[in-house]
Write a structure and sequence with these properties.
Class_I_gatase-like; globular; 28% strand; two-stranded antiparallel sheet; 174 residues; alpha+beta
Length: 174
């Protein structure tokens, strides 16, 4: 929290509910939500919570109407993303007025506070992005018998541009 508050950038990549990879009983939504609620600095500092869902598959093309450098940056324009077993994010603008939904489920309002897939926020001098599926940045390689998706190069999305633009935004290069 202090890293972000002091000007750092944090990219939070969640996965779906019940995505406990090391069998310790805790999955990524729970870990990220715990960070935002029990961090010793502030409760809900970024203004969002990771939802406990498992959405099997959706090609997302429901982007917020606002102009945003993460969606339209130096690495290209983002017209959509993918979910391959992922989750969503609920925005809490009363906790942080800077929180914004950037990509939503196709059935959701692109200006609402529920069913966002990619969100941005700021806290102190820093910036945060959170996305609801690790498959978006997956390069198609993985361990053992796991099923992987090449989200980086998936033709249904522009995840390469999304992550590169997002990283540049977090680093305040754009």
């Amino acid at each position: 929290m202090q890293f972000v508050q002091n000007g750092g950038g944090l990219f939070m990549i969640s996965d779906h509910d019940k995505s406990d990879r090391n069998n310790d009983g805790i999955d990524s939504p729970a870990i990220l939500n715990d960070l935002m609620q029990n961090n010793g600095v502030a409760k809900d500092p970024f203004g969002f919570q990771i939802d406990l869902k498992n959405i099997s598959s959706q090609n997302l093309n429901n982007l917020t109407p606002q102009t945003n450098p993460v969606l339209n940056g130096p690495f290209g324009a983002v017209k959509g993303s993918i979910i391959r077993n992922g989750t969503t994010v609920t925005l809490h603008p009363t906790a942080n007025a800077q929180v914004r939904g950037l990509i939503y489920l196709n059935s959701a309002s692109p200006t609402g506070s529920k069913n966002a897939f990619l969100v941005s926020s700021s806290y102190g001098k820093g910036r945060v992005l959170a996305i609801g599926d690790s498959s978006t940045i997956d390069d198609g390689t993985c361990r053992g018998n796991d099923q992987c998706y090449d989200g980086w190069n998936d033709p249904a999305a522009q995840n390469r541009a999304l992550f590169l633009n997002g990283t540049a935004w977090l680093a305040k290069a754009i």
